[in-house]
Amino acid sequence: MADRSDTLPFKTLVTQAGAVLLTHGVEVESTSVWGVAEHLVEAMAQQVGMDHDEAVHLVTPEAVAEIIMKAAGEADQGVSGPHAVRPVRIDDRTVSAPVESLGHLVMAASQAGKYAGLNCDGAAAAQLLDLVTEIGAALVKNHADGAAEISVGVLDELAELVDTVADQVETSGWSICPCGEEHGQRTVDAGTFPVMRHHAALARGLREQAAG
């Protein structure tokens, strides 16, 4: 039996919903848009007593985008939203950064991602892991004479996310071991967030080369 979602009307719905999201300044992986659209179509089919092929025409791209944007808004308020939602990178410039500095940023993103994951913010953890991958790719592909080209957008996202995690550690009780029993982790946490802020500042300093 053919996949009911593997039809032109459904694919069109997913594509148009992705376009609507772009107008709101976010880019979302197609698999996530696909999942939300599939859920809405199934719900509509059950509600009005139609089959999937008929119900797909009753679901608008705006309705699909609205659900995803609402989830992204909840993530901004501290509720973990869909990890596939990303800000659209408008600035596509690159800067040449020392390999050593980029190594520090890999460590910063990895550390912040570990804190986010352990403290139940899967969206931040996933995005930080993506940034680690992007920086690693830049080091592999663009490494020459002790420096590598890195996207300004990567530096912006990393600085913002690492600072956000540092805030959570400093003011909201995020811990490297949120088990509820004290066994020295507070000392580790207290020494961690200043380092995170230092690395966020390093990312912003590298980014300023593009502005200069």
If you had to describe this structure to a student in words, what would you say it looks like?
By secondary structure, the protein is mainly α. It has helices at residues 8-23, 30-48, 52-55, 61-76, 99-118, 122-141, 152-171, 185-211; strands at residues 26-28, 85-87, 94-98, 143-144, 147-151. A hairpin with a 2-residue loop joins β4 and β5 (147-151). α1 packs across α2 (30-48) and α1 crosses α4 (61-76). The longest helix is centred in the last third of the chain and has 27 residues, at 185-211. It is globular.
Please describe the structure with a list of short key phrases separated by commas or semicolons.
single chain, two-stranded antiparallel ribbon, mainly alpha
Strand count, sense and barrel status of the largest sheet are: 3 strands, antiparallel
* DSSP strand tally: 5
The average pLDDT is 86
Quote the beta fraction: 5-15%
The general outline is globular
Order of helices and strands: HEHHHEEHHEEHH
Question: Radius of gyration, Cα only, in angstroms?
Answer: 21 Å
C-alpha termini separation: 59 Å
- State the helical fraction: 55-70%
Strand order of the largest sheet: 3-5-4
> Pairing-aware structural class of the strands and helices?
mainly alpha
Number of helices: 8
The poorly predicted ranges are: 77-81
Give the topology, please.
Elements: H1 8-23, E1 26-28, H2 30-48, H3 52-55, H4 61-76, E2 85-87, E3 94-98, H5 99-118, H6 122-141, E4 143-144, E5 147-151, H7 152-171, H8 185-211
Helix pairs in contact: 1-2, 1-4, 2-4, 5-6, 5-7, 5-8, 6-7, 7-8
